[in-house]
Design goal:
Length: 211
């Protein structure tokens, strides 16, 4: 699991621990996640040099939940490094190590040809990982993520309040938010399905269908 301290990643690890299908969960992170369980193996690594810990990127599936904001990163260059470069290099190493499946948390509106920096960055990653040698690539495009974060995001907090008011309006449902634990549940559910499709991209409504 990449990004185990984020809103989705933390929920994902908690659910993987409870799921009997998964016997070992490898966490690769820059700081301690706090997870203590016999299933969990945690390694603190320097994301700037994937080759130093490439041997650790192994298993049946890589769940990639890493992400940051422009405010937290400090610049577009630094945000691109976290949201694109780190995730792509992890995915590439996983594919080269024989990991079969790749499950990625992307974003609604992801489009490599977008004029908006964030959605363009997400779209470019979506396209890039599809070219790697995975048996299956599952991409999830949720809307605004709802739930508790260790680092507060003022814009998302305001967005969550707005979403809670519009989600029951029929023609605005496509803009409603989704909880981090719901995204994690959808990721596991989709992974466990037997599918012959090499590529599956799940939009917001399809995420809810998986829960």
């Amino acid at each position: 699991v990449l990004g185990a301290t984020g809103l989705v990643g933390k929920q994902l690890v908690e659910q993987l621990i409870l799921d009997e299908l998964f016997s070992k969960i490898i966490l690769l992170h820059r700081r301690a996640t706090g997870f203590k369980h016999e299933k969990v193996e945690e390694y603190l690594v320097d994301f700037n040099d994937v080759n130093q810990f490439k041997v650790l990127i192994r298993g049946d599936v890589l769940f990639s939940c890493l992400g940051t904001t422009l405010q937290q990163a400090g610049s577009k260059e630094e945000q691109f490094k976290v949201d694109y470069t780190y995730q792509y290099e992890f995915a590439q190493a996983a594919a080269e190590n024989g990991v079969l499946d790749y499950v990625l948390v992307s974003s609604s509106g992801a489009n490599a040809r977008s004029m908006i920096f964030y959605t363009k960055m997400k779209g470019k990653l979506d396209e890039a990982v599809q070219k790697l040698g995975f048996k299956r690539v599952l991409i999830f495009r949720p809307s605004l993520l709802l739930g508790y974060r260790e680092q507060k995001r003022a814009g998302e907090a305001l967005g969550a309040k707005i979403m809670s008011r519009i989600q029951n309006i029929p023609y605005l449902k496509k803009y409603r938010g989704i909880k981090g634990e719901e995204v994690a549940q959808a990721m596991i559910s989709a992974y466990k399905r037997e599918s012959q499709s090499r590529l599956s991209i799940f939009t917001l409504n399809e995420l809810f269908d998986l829960i």
